[in-house]
Amino acid sequence: DPKQGNIMSFFKRV
Amino acid sequence: MLELRLVQGGLLKKVLESIKDLVNDANFDCSATGFSLQAMDSSQVAVVALLLRPEGFERYWCDRNISMGMNLNNMAKMLKCAGNDDIITLKAEDGSDTVTFMFESPTQDKIADFEMKLMDINSERLGFPEADYHAIVRMPSSEFARICKDLSSIGNTVVISVTKEGVRFSTRGDIGTANVVCRQNTAVDKPEEATIIEMNEPVSLTFGLRYMNSLTKATPLSNTVTLSLSSGLPAVVEYRIAEMGYIRFYLAPKIEE
């Protein structure tokens, strides 16, 4: 089964 | 000092109902841009971004940028005490550790105020770059909510695929499989009933239905929902709040290991 991605890994902290 | 008077108080009630199950605590920021919030769910799968622009308020006064940490469940409890047609005013004094919600009935014969304790929340802010999405689907929000609810009785994940054929929502579970295809349809009586599909290239993404269903709690805020999709990137699920702003959910996809 595909693994749930973490939203933090897609965007940069500002 | 902050004072925000919202004639359509029911809007704020709906906003809270749409995010309180996804996010526990959040900072509400008040600035010249508007009344906004950015918060992540505890499992770090979704981020919600809310903006209510100053023009949407009858009175929008904040003499400096203010960030107010609130427990959303507690805020929802307080806002539940407001009538759907009530005018809601938020007030906070400088340096205060409380916020006051004032509810006025439309005929001004009942006025209530509820004071809620604020909290210190350390939250990280994420920047969302402008992206060229592979596909953008606009459809009636009630239809999208119905599909997510129906599919979640069959499976745990939904594959959303956009092709020339239309947008396909698929799931599979122990009892079987389900596919719902929505085609572009602009031959409708009202513009909000249309399904509009803009596709630059085909895209297919997998999401947890538990999260998708949670996002659809925002359905009462807007007749339409917009899904912006790109391969390998979070989906943006946007509900426009008429003449005021939006609530956007950024939802991380499931990824093949």
H/E series of chain B: EHEEEEEHEEEEEHEEEEEHEEEE
Poorly predicted runs of chain B: none
Total helical elements of chain B: 4
Query: pLDDT average of chain A, as an integer?
Result: 91
Q: Give unreliable regions of chain A as ranges.
A: none
Percent in strands of chain B = over 45%
User: How large is the share of residues in beta strands of chain A?
Assistant: 25-35%
Class per helix and strand makeup of chain B: mainly beta
The level of helicity of chain B is 10-25%
Outline of chain B: globular
Overall radius of gyration of chain A: 10 Å
How does the overall form of chain A come out from the CA principal axes?
Answer: rod-shaped
Order of helices and strands of chain A: EE
Greatest interface by residues involved = A-B, 14 and 25 residues
Average pLDDT reading of chain B:
96
**Helical content class of chain A:** under 10%
What does the largest sheet of chain B look like? 9 strands, antiparallel
Any descriptors?
heterodimer; A: 14 residues; mainly beta; 29% strand; rod-shaped; B: 257 residues; 5-stranded antiparallel sheet; globular
Q: What features would you describe in this structure?
A:
- The complex is a heterodimer of chains A (14) and B (257).
- Chain A is mostly beta strands.
- Chain A is built from no helices and two strands.
- Chain A has strands spanning 3-4, 12-13.
- The N and C termini of chain A lie far apart (33 Å).
- In chain A, 14% of the residues are buried.
- The model of chain A has no long low-confidence stretch (mean pLDDT 91).
- With 257 residues, chain B is mainly beta.
- Chain B is built from four helices and 20 strands.
- In chain B, the strands form three sheets. Chain B has a nine-stranded antiparallel sheet with strand order 6-2-3-4-19-18-17-11-15.
- In chain B, α1 (9-19) runs antiparallel to α2 and α3 (141-152) packs antiparallel against α4.
- The relative contact order of chain B is 0.18.
- The mean pLDDT of chain B is 96.
- Classes of the chains: A mainly beta (14), B mainly beta (257).
- Chain A binds chain B through residues 1-14, and chain B through 40, 43-47, 124-129, 157, 206, 208, 233-234, 250-257.
- β1 of chain A pairs antiparallel with β20 of chain B, so a sheet runs across the interface.
